[in-house]
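Human: I would love a firmer grasp of how sequence relates to backbone shape in proteins. Take your time, and here it is.
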Amino acid sequence: MLIRPIETEDLPELLALAKEAGVGVTTLQANPERLSARILASETSLNAAEPDAADASYVFVLEDEQTGKIVGTSAIEAAVGMHETWYNYRVGINVHASRELGIYKQLETLFLNSDMTGSSELCSLFLLPIYRKEGNGSLLSKARFLFMAEHSARFSHRIIAEMRGISDEDGRSPFWESLGRHFFRMDFARADFLSYVGSKSFIAELMPQHPIYTCFLPEEARVAIGEVHAATRPARAMLEAEGFHYQGYVDIFDAGPTLECELDQVRAVRASGCYQAELVTAEAGVPWLVSNRRLVGFRCVLAIAQKTENGLQLTQGILDQLGIADGDSVRAVPLSAKE
């Protein structure tokens, strides 16, 4: 299994992945024109010496080298909200108190904001269900951290990840049905799509600008605030193990949580190092994420490897996947923080 940047000819398979992802993965909508534009933006960003962060994005695919099939995708947006306002709800507390009446109440509120503007975003993570095994999900998600560690000047110090919120098999979001629909008169999938394609002016025009008291929402909407879709729980746990935290920001459509971390505090960034590849004939050690340190030709794989005094022991098969030779430099990190 190999992580590499997406290429123009990958569009049909990316479209197929988007169709599989379904409603709720905002940045992976099954729209050929938008997906084609994302591929072009990624290729342009990789080939630019100093890309404008406002326009830069990097899309990666997980390729099954035995079949040549694209089985997963993940991406990084270098800086969100630089052209279209980036909206979230901030979950807060308003206190209502009266000493005379002996009443003290803390009431949860939602406040529309754009605090995340300029942050780099991890997005578009999707892996075909039958490949959710043998570390493939970790490779697909965490390979981005080795890319960011190697090319940190291209990204913000603040890294965020919007998690998919709760919705049912039909794409119905209890939070949207209880709040957003009253202002937009459209279903969740349509609003999510309009946000994705850049038609975000309707958010500012129609959403309430004053704090929303969550006590007025139905219970199923309240319990959805800050919670993730069942299929997203492993991704959330993985990011939290890397140092990401929920700081009270949620999506305005499905109330899924936004996780965040400083780039240099991400475990796989902080703990990664550069090593000399040492050719060995047999695998030994523990799982490592290993990348070839390149930009346009970036490659990342999962390898059973062992660190030595001078480098990292890798088999010829791993060197071939990375397109490097014995003695070349790699960036690597143990797959798990426990190693």
User: Anything to note?
Assistant: Residues 32-47 form the longest helix (16 residues).
